[in-house]
Structure formats: C-alpha cells, structure tokens
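Crash report, auto-generated. Payload:
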Amino acid sequence: MSDTLSKLEKRTAYTLVLPAVLLVFAIVLFPIFANVWISFKDIKLKDIRIPEPRAKKIVKSISENQSELKIIYKLRNSSLIQEIRNVQFQDKFPKDISPINLDSRCNFQSKKVICNFGNWEAKYRENFEIAIKNNNGEIIDKKKIKSQKPILSGKADNPLLSTNFTLDNFKKVFYENNFVELLLTTFYFTFFGTVGAIIFGILAAQLVNQNIQGRTYMRGILLFPYVGPVVALAYTWTLLLDPNSGTLNALLVNFNIIEKPINLLGQKYITMSILGFELKLRLALTTVIFFEIWRYFPLAFLFILARLQAIPQSLYEAADVDGASPIQKFIHITLPQITAIISILFMIRFIWNFNKFEDIFLLTGGASGTRTLPINVYQQGFAVSDIGMGSAVSIVIVMLLISFMVIYFRLIGKKANEI
Amino acid sequence: MKFKSLTVFLVISSFFLTCILSIWKIMSTLQGLNFTDLNITGVFFNGILLSLLFVLIGNRINHLIKIFLLSFLFSLLYFFFNETSAYWYIFGVFLITVFFTNKLKKYNIQSLTEDFISEKIIFDFITLFGIVFFAFVILFPFYIMLVTSFKTQIALLVNPLDFSLDFSKSFAELFKSYFVIFDTYNFGRYILISSAVSIGTVIVTLLFAIPAAYAVARLNFFGKNFLSTSILIIYMFPAIVLVIPLYTVFSQLGLRNSIFGLLIVYTATTLPVAIYMLQGYFKSIPKEIEDAGIMDGQSWFGIILKIIIPLSLPAITSVALYVFMIAWNEFLFSLMFLDSPKSFTLSRAIQYLSGDAETPRQYLMAGSVIVTLPVLFIFVYFEKYLVSGLTSGSVKG
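Recovered output after restart:
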C-alpha cells in the first residue's frame, strides 16, 4: 500500500518538476555544453547561416507578341563558402501555359516546371531562362506570373554540426589576446567592485540602523540604483561624466576645483603626484568600478541591515553598562555578528561582478582599458565576428567560475547553511 | 577634557553644516544661479561661530526662539558675504540652519563633559552627514535624468549647468522630448513590447515554477537534493556564457527578432530564482492543511490550486514582481537577439537611440525616464513585499 503511494508521489513529483527542468536544461545547461563544442571549431559569424539556394524572378516580354514571355531566374547560392547539394527547383504556372524549348535539366508536368540542378559550389550564380507561351494565343498576365514564387530546396552541411575540430581558438585566447592584461583587468574590476560595494553597504546599513526619522524611506531610496534599469542608469552617468558638456565636469570647472575637464570614461591612465610620487591610475576602469559600487552596494546594504536588525539590543545595553565607547561596540559586537553575511556577500558579488557585462558595455564599450572577460566574449563573437573565439573565452569564464564555486563551497558553504 | 570635546564638537558640527550648505549651493547652481566659489572656509568659520554661540547661550532662552534667532543671524551674515540676490536661496540657507541648530539641541556645556562625548559627537554627525551624502549621491543622477528630459539641446549647450525648468512654457513645449520619442521614435510600440514580454515572462514563469517548487518543497523523489543544489548553481551561471550558443541556435531556428524567443530565454533564466524563492515559502506552510486536503480526496492539482496558491499569495506576488522587474530591465539578451527596430524592447530601443551620435541627449533621457518610472513605481509601492523577497531569495544582478 505505502509502496504504491510512494510510487504515485514520485510520479507526481516528476510530472510537476519536468517542464521547468526541461526548459532550464534547454536554455541554460545546453548552451554551456554547446560552448565547449563551438570553442573547438573554426567558425565565424557568417558561417552560422545555413546556405540556401535562392532565385529572383524577372518577367520580360520577348517581342510584340504578348502571348509569349521570357522568365529569367537569377539563381545563386547564398553562401560564399559552402556548396549546396542536389538543388531542386519548382515553379508553377497558370493553366494553358506551357514552356518552349525547356532546359534539359527540367521537365514540365501538370502545370509545374521541375528542375534538378545538381550541386552548386560556393558563390554559384546562374541566369536561368524559361520561355513560355499561351496555348490559346491569349495575352499572358505578367503580374500573375510574377506573383508566383519558385520553390527551391537543397542539402547543405551545417558547419555547426561538422566534425572538424581545432585548438586554434584556445591558442589565440591565451597567446594573441593580451590574456594576462585581460585577466588582470577583470580581477581589478571584480575585486575592487566587490570590496567597495561591501564597505559602502556596511556604512549605509550602520547609518540606517540608527534610530533616525524616515528610516524606511531611506531604505527605499538606497535601493533605487539596484532596481533601476541598467540602460537608463548607465546613460545618465555617461551624460553626467561627459567631458564636453557633462554636469560633473562643468561643476568642477565652475568651482575652480579642476582647471580643465577630465574625460573620466575615455582616458585610460591618469598620473597623480602624491607626496612627490608619480602614481599612475587606471582612470576609466576606476570610474567604471565606482559606477559598479554605486549600483550594487544597495544589495550588500540590505543584507547587512537585515542582519544588524537581528542583533539583540541587550548586547548593546550590556556594553553600555560596561562603559564601552561607540567604536568598541562596533568592533566587538557588530562586526563579529556580520562577518558571516559579509563572507557570503563577498563570494556572491565576486561571482556576479566577474560576469558583469552590461554595465561596462554601456559605459565604455570595453574601450580605454576596461576590457574584461565578458566584454571580450562579445567583442570576439560579434565585433570580430569570430564565434569560435567568443565561445573559447566563454569556456575560460566557466572554468574560472567553477573553481570559484568549489572554493566557495569548501570555505563558506557550511556557514551559509547556518544562517 | 572639556576643551577637547568642545573643539571636536565645533569642528564636526561646522563641517556638517558646510557640507549641507555646499550641496545646497551646488543644487542652486544647477538652477541657474551664478556661483563660482564654494567659499568653504568662510562657511566653516561662520559655522564654528554659530555652534559656539549655541552652546554658550545654552538654556537661557527658549529653544525655538534660540534656533530661529541664530539661524536668522547666520543667514543675514551669509547674505552679506555672498554673491547672490536670489531670496529663495537665502531662505533655503535659513531653513538648513534651522534644521542644523535643531539637531544641536541635545548639546550644552554640561553634556560636553560626559564619557566618550567626542566619539558620540563624531558618530552623531557622521550619521547625519552619511544620510545626506548617500541620499545626494543616489538621487542626483535620477534628478539629472529627469530634468535633462525637459531641457533643449541648445539650452544645455549654452549653459550645461542650468537645469531650471521654465514653467511659463506651454505643456507641449515642456514635454516636447516625450512627444518626439513617441511620435518619431515609436516608443509607444516599445512600451507595448516590453510590457508584453515582461508580463508574459511572469505568467509563464509562475506556471512552471509553482508546480516545481511545490514538488521540491513537499514531495519525496529521487534526485531531489541534487535538483535543489543545482538550482542554486545554475543561478550563479552568467548570461554572457549562454549568449553565443543561444545566438547561433536561435539564428538557425529563426527565433531571433521574435518576442517568443525572448520570452523563452527570460523564463528559463528567471525560473531558478522563482523556484528557489517559492519553495522556501511553501515549506513554511503547515503540512496539516494539505493533509486535510488529501483526506478530502483532492488531487495534487487541486491541492496546489485550492490550498497552496491562496495561502502563499504574498510570496507569489513578490516573485511575480521580481520576475517582472528582471524581464523589464533585461538588456543583454535583447541586445543579442533583437536587431530589427520592429521588435525592440524599451532598453534595446534606448541603446539603439544612443548608437546614433546625433540623437539629442534629452530624447535619450526622456526614454530613460520612461523605462525607469514603472520599475521605481512598482518598487516604491510594493516595497514591503520586495525587500523581504530580496533578502530571502537574493536576486541576481
């Protein structure tokens, strides 16, 4: 009895879970594996269109005699690289119309011209002609002929499915792609973005956790950058930071804080002299990191605030009795209570910042030293049009991510369950 | 000791006053007032004087009278030493000083001798300063976005600092950018597409997620633990690594430039979060209620429909709102999959607009306001649901 019940339960569970699992498999897991396949192939953006035979139909009069017409089909192979095999052609004609001197590759039966064109190599072109006449000698309606579209079919290899593999993409990723700089930029961006977001998150949470008026409003306002659409926010910042007519530069110049506008998003380095030392700072990258912090510190803020509000007030009262200063209270009570959530936040934000594409893409497009790995995927795949290379970079990202996750689950996975 | 804490008090409080007055000055500059000097040192010393007077007067006169008197004096001083004739600006200075002196209420000569008073003073004013700072840094870009959309290209080129709105203009003149983006750039259509995709994603995601979350929360089956951990892991995987394979497959299947294609991808990418958030909530529903349902001979379908869904409406609402916001804000996939203006979403349309260097910035900002407003509105209105959902489900970003 219980056996059949548990069987029923299992079957129910699988029917409930299956649709979601299948969809996620198809759209999320399958592409990750497909990346492996594509990354070992020499495949460009133009290759992914499957070649197809095409025909453009032009109708012309032959002479004064309007019961006869000439039709020219401009045939071509849409692909510049691949051949199409066994091309079949078919066109239909109104009744009482028959072709004159039909090409030997074709035959005419039941109002249809059917041709077998054999194989077309890449870039194949031909002007194929059929002359037709009306058997009754009446005028042929040109428009009617023209409106009938020919049907073509043929077999072509899908370059995605072929079994030619190469290691070139990975060689290029590691040796020709400024890989070290790419990796360093990604790590700078990820690390400082994460740390900055957490520091500002702690500050903001500490502020809002005081008993101030309008605390809930403040919490709402602080989350605005996180919930707003990237596109809108990134363009607003680009506008604010614009060197020619941006508000920020105009303000700084107006109040004589700087002499001439600084191109915060378009300048790779800025040299600053502090105490006689010449310091070279990655300007555009720093600006992008600050945008990143601005946009994502709210998440850290929210998590830390939730944790802060769960700290029993009695701890602080006891500290007051012992005569602890505010700083001592922060170091000895607050900080130990939030270390766990901070370590989790660090890992989560680290992984997500590592994958961040939109923010950098919209602010700088990856120029002026802000090219990170995700930006590189896009540039390789769609700007250079090398799908294989783009996939290879994706694979590098996935590999790095998997190692982060392993570290994450080793180090703090247990802690995460405790909270 | 007393002298030290008094110095700390004067410096810190005056520093705070200088900061808010500088922000006020910057905001007024953006309203077209012609300032070229922040005059930080002047304000700072005046502030020290103000705080000193405040402490010295102490409780000798009524607090209200005291703050108004002191603020009036300060504003008068400010008026004579500054380069302005705008009365609303001075009135703002007056209000800020009233606010500031009111904050000083708890300090007097006696309180400055308490334990750790310097640290407490620093903490108090840093809190105040922090709130003003965070509010300013966060709201300023939104403010610029909004006011830019009401200006004209020429006005902004002439004086990039003048964001004052001319209310004497007619309604049509003021909202010109909005009319233009609807008339010439077809934003009405994009709003429709964005709404259709987002609402569609919400519906399909809930249809798939509710049964799956129920099974994960309640039923025993082989691979359940594996499934719930893989939900989390999949959730960590970035969209950027999915883009190339999906692009190639969608190109070959003809799913690019179609709303349907976008809908599938959005649903699949939001499903893990939705399942994760929902199953957590379903687990908190007492199992006895369902047992009663089983006794009544309900099928699993009946249990989900008649017991689980009505009981977990708050959680479902918050998941629905999240999924809506994720889909509405999504940019990467719409950039990859849509290249015909006929099928653009709002985000993609704005990005497309910006690709043309000739597009005046006020149109860009008007578009940005249009795409931002619904999300902020939903967020503010449903904040309570959303904040609890955020902390439990940790939405990706």
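Post-recovery validation: The radius of gyration of chain B is 29 Å.
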